[in-house]
């Protein structure tokens, strides 16, 4: 799965899920985390996934990002089937095409900001320079600092720089503002919106916070393992215009 597909037209699906189901466990203890989910994500789209705790959001994102595999159904990244793919194929998919951002930043404490980002650029096929990634998250002045010297929001911005430095097609964010206060959370969302806008990176963001949905091209609500609704907001708001 090379990156020959980079630069394809906006608007064509980059991800397609068909009848996706995920069951954890079996018998009486089986948990149906996803039930027949159909979803297409267009290239360059900004999708917000909303839903109650336990509704299946992380399971869906993990399958879209090749961290997990479905029990049944199909999932395609462009023309590549991820369902039933071997571990090494999924590893390559994640390494080449997917940037992940989680609630907790997972930075290496003994490495500087720039070194944390360089960990990824050193092993990527077409990385951007470390400083370009830090510029995008407005952290150049902190490039030689250690994670412990940064606020939570700054650490999350390093995690975003690390995720995008390999120029992934997909930026998958699972509660990126979950550990942050209101104002800091907005700053982090602004960074994700900027990357989506300026680099054209397709972004999917999970949140409990319905107000964030105003930033999206499309809002997908997940309930009990199903897609309960899909909305297209009339106008995409900047994080500065959001309030909650
Ligand atoms: N590894 C696992 N083993 C068993 N059950 C699991 C596993 N992972 C998730 N589940 C269950 O699958 C369901 C969906 O979980 P998931 O984490 O996708 O929900 P979520 O919407 O992301 O929740 P939250 O907002 O709390 O993170 C839940 O009932 C959860 O307990």
From TrEMBL:
Keyword annotations: Antibiotic resistance, ATP-binding, Cell membrane, Membrane, Nucleotide-binding, Transmembrane, Transmembrane helix, Transport
**What does the record list as GO biological process?**
response to antibiotic
Instruction: List cellular component terms (GO).
Output: membrane protein complex
Which SUPFAM superfamilies does this entry report, sorted A to Z? P-loop containing nucleoside triphosphate hydrolases (SSF52540)
Enumerate the spans annotated as ABC transporter domain.
15-244
Q: Write down the InterPro entries for this protein, in alphabetical order.
A: AAA+_ATPase (IPR003593), ABC_transporter-like_ATP-bd (IPR003439), ABC_transporter-like_CS (IPR017871), MacB-like_ATP-bd (IPR017911), P-loop_NTPase (IPR027417)
- Annotated Gene Ontology MF terms? ATP binding; ATP hydrolysis activity; transmembrane transporter activity
So which domain of life are we looking at? Bacteria
Instruction: Identify its protein family.
Output: Belongs to the ABC transporter superfamily. Macrolide exporter (TC 3.A.1.122) family.
List the protein's name: ABC transporter ATP-binding protein
Which species?
Ramlibacter montanisoli
């Amino acid at each position: 799965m090379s990156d020959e597909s980079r630069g394809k037209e906006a608007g064509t699906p980059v991800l397609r899920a068909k009848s996706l189901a995920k069951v954890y466990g079996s018998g009486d203890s089986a948990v149906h985390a996803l039930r027949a989910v159909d979803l297409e994500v267009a290239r360059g789209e900004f999708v917000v996934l909303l839903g109650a705790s336990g509704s299946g959001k992380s399971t869906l994102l993990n399958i879209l990002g090749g961290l997990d595999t479905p029990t049944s159904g199909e999932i395609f990244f462009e023309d590549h089937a991820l369902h039933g793919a071997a571990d090494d194929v999924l590893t390559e998919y994640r390494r080449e095409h997917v940037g992940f951002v989680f609630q907790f930043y997972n930075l290496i404490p003994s490495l500087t900001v720039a070194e944390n980002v360089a960990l990824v650029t050193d092993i990527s096929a077409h990385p951007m320079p470390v400083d370009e990634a830090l510029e995008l998250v407005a952290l150049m002045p902190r490039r030689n600092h250690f994670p412990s010297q940064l606020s939570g929001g700054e650490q999350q911005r390093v995690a975003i720089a690390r995720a995008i430095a390999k120029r992934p097609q997909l930026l998958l964010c699972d509660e990126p503002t979950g550990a942050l206060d209101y104002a800091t959370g907005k700053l982090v969302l602004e960074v994700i919106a900027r990357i989506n806008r300026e680099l054209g990176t397709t972004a999917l963001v999970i949140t409990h916070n319905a107000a964030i949905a105003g930033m999206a091209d499309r809002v997908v609500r997940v309930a009990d393992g199903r897609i309960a609704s899909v909305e297209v907001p009339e106008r995409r708001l900047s994080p500065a215009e959001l309030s909650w």
